Amino acid sequence: MGVVALVTGLAILGMTRLEFDDGPRRVFRAEDAAYGLLESVYRDFGADDNECVVVIEADDFFREPAPSALRELGEACSAVQGVESVLGLPESVVFSGIFPRPLLPPASAGVQAREEARQRAANSPLVNGHLLSEDGKTAVLFVRLAGDELYVSEVEPRVEALREAIDRWEERTGFVARLTGIPPVRVEIYRAVREETLVFLGGGAGLCFLLTLVIFRNLRAVLCTCAGPVLGAIWTLGFLGLAEIQIDIITTVLPALVVVIGFTDAVHLMVDMRRARLVSGGVQPGQGASRGASERLAASRGAIADLGMPCLLASVTTAIGFGSLALGSMEIIRGFGLAAVAGVLLTFSAVVVVVPLSASWAGDLGGILPGTGPALARWRNRFGRGMDAVTRHPGWVGGGGIALIASLLLLSADLEPDNRLTEATPHDNESFLAMLRYEEAFGGVLAGYVLVEWDESVNLGSGVVVEAVRTVEGVLGSREELSNPFSVVHFLDAAGLEPAALPGLIDILPSDVTGRFVRPDLRRALVAVSFPDIASEPVGPLLASLQEELHALADEMPGIFLHLTGTNVVARENINGMIVDLVRGLAFAVGVILLIISIEFRSWRLGLISLVPNVLPLAAVAAALAVTSQPLQVTSSIVFSVLLGIAVDDTIHVLARFRREHAVDGDLRAAIRRTFLVVGRALAITTTVLIAGCSVVLCSSIPSSRLFGILLCFGLLVALLGDLVLLPALIVLTARPRSTRAPAGE
């Protein structure tokens, strides 16, 4: 207990050092050429993940007081500390020859001047569809934050200051404006995660505690059972703090994950200790500690002796499954994999030490002697008859289960990875509503780019670069999913100039505007395009086809090189790769499970049949995603890892108990019946409690969190059915029993 107290003290110290922060690119940073190219685009043209978008709605932006209000809004946003630049209708220009002049008329302008300005805006390639919607009812203001790769802690005060400035502007002018873009959406996501993680972790733990109390009907038993997993979560958080690992959007699920995995082992230990006490005539209900400490200590020692190795095997296989993620290409997944390994092993240590230790001090742990109590007797008889039915028809049950898994896998074969910013965005806030409006009016808030490069043989004013850029715009504009291609040639078109005038035009226009789209000194230009985030179809196939078309196009233009890039493009590709890494980690874990179980139980047969009930919940969840037209996201991929860890844990406990029971008299069916009468109750308890605890997440404002809860609850239920129905049938079907005598009383 002294060691436990020391480790817990260090963990609490580590928790005081925890930081909840994240950079926008950590989730998709990788050591590959695509990310390296994106970094060079950030360096040369500025980052596209630090731009806020103010969506403004009005009936007429060219009639006072709208123009004056727009200028006032731009000035208010520019005055916010940390804002680098502001671009909107007040900053947009029209051309008189090659000389630019403001688009919006002055406040003193007459009706005719305002109508002329309206017509110029409608005809301007710089304004229509980019700064002003085609119906003229929605305008946007782009607010770029200063700095590169801003962390949430840096972005949040700037976003709040912008919101306050916009609120004051709305009160003064009566116009309506909403703030969106990647920085505000990130703030909303992390704010919701910070608030809901503590609320749902506490609420789920409280609900699990109450339900466990109802099942065990003994406060001491519940406290002893919950102490191990809770300490495991504390130790895990302490480890993250001491190791200076920041809590991010991925690692935030780790405390709940280790509690879920640790709770299954804790329940198995408690069920075994209560049974051992009652069978041995130790501490009986209502007698407190009067029967002495020796019986309590013997029950705890027996639980460790019988279940210590199964618990260790379950934890090691789960840890190896998570450890396989460290082999992936994504920094954030490698970090999550290593942190999960540490969390699983720390929680195992906490459970196998704290649960038996605390139980050895506790007096009455409750429980009813086997064969006594009318309710328990009825349950045992019904469960026993059900188990007998399964073992009498193992071929039908086992064959049907395998056929079901094959059907589910076939159904989910077309499941595609996809990720969206809005999958983790609360839908009841200003940023999401503004994003909806922006996508409706302009097509998409997420930017992608085609980088156009040329070698020394190509001159910017020769027309070759302009032709290449126009061709790229045509390719992008031909895709219905994309909208509003924009490049430096829009300035040429707005001024009505020939390609040869481009170098001179660049010299005249402000460098902070043209520098976002062309760098003559680096022989680089960008063509920007808007991607929808709230889309019905995955964007991955669109990106792949665009890559192929751009490569073919570049081959036809000597001296020109084309690259599809941008935060949205690289993030989608790399996060999809991260999802694939998670799935590969599962495949690796399945192989490790087969090896470890086969070695421990000295039977490849048991190793192989143990895989079937473990694969069943994974196949069921994958099929559920396919049937509901849900893509494979990071959240659902993590659900697979959690389900596999829990299913393996339960399967190992079943096989360990079966080996003990089968060694008693060699009667296969009787051993199975005794095994599941003991372990089946523990499986039912853990599944019921975990489903109740996870159901709290269904109240989350974050769609991905709700999806996580739904899939996990569904998968847990399927995993229970696999262990209680499919596993015993497979044991009978593949076993070579020494005896097949019917169970006593059959």
Strand proportion, as a percent range, falls in 5-15%
Distance between the termini: 47 Å
Q: If you average the pLDDT, what whole number results? A: 83
Task: Return the structural class.
Answer: alpha+beta
Please outline the major beta sheet. 5 strands, antiparallel
Binned, the helix content reads: 55-70%
Q: CATH architecture of the domain at 374-411 and 601-746, please?
A: Up-down Bundle
CATH class placement of the domain at 374-411 and 601-746? Mainly Alpha
State the gist of this model.
This protein is α+β, with helices and mostly antiparallel strands and 746 residues long. The protein is 63% helix and 8% strand. The C terminus is likely disordered.
Structure, described:
Among the domains are: 48-187, no CATH class; 374-411 and 601-746, Multidrug efflux transporter AcrB transmembrane fold (Up-down Bundle); 428-565, Alpha-Beta Plaits, CATH 3.30.70. It is 63% helix and 8% strand. It has helices at residues 2-15, 33-45, 66-78, 111-123, 152-173, 182-216, 219-242, 254-279, 293-323, 331-361, 374-392, 394-411, 430-442, 464-477, 489-495, 502-508, 511-514, 540-555, 567-600, 604-627, 634-665, 668-694, 703-734; strands at 51-57, 83-87, 93-96, 99-102, 138-145, 176-181, 446-454, 483-486, 518-519, 524-531, 560-565. The strands form 3 sheets. Strands 7, 8, 9, 10 and 11 form a 5-stranded antiparallel beta sheet that branches. It has a 4-stranded antiparallel beta sheet with strand order 2-5-1-6, with helices on both faces. A two-stranded antiparallel ribbon has the order 3-4. Strand 9 (518-519) and strand 10 form a beta hairpin. The longest helix has 35 residues, at 182-216. It is elongated.
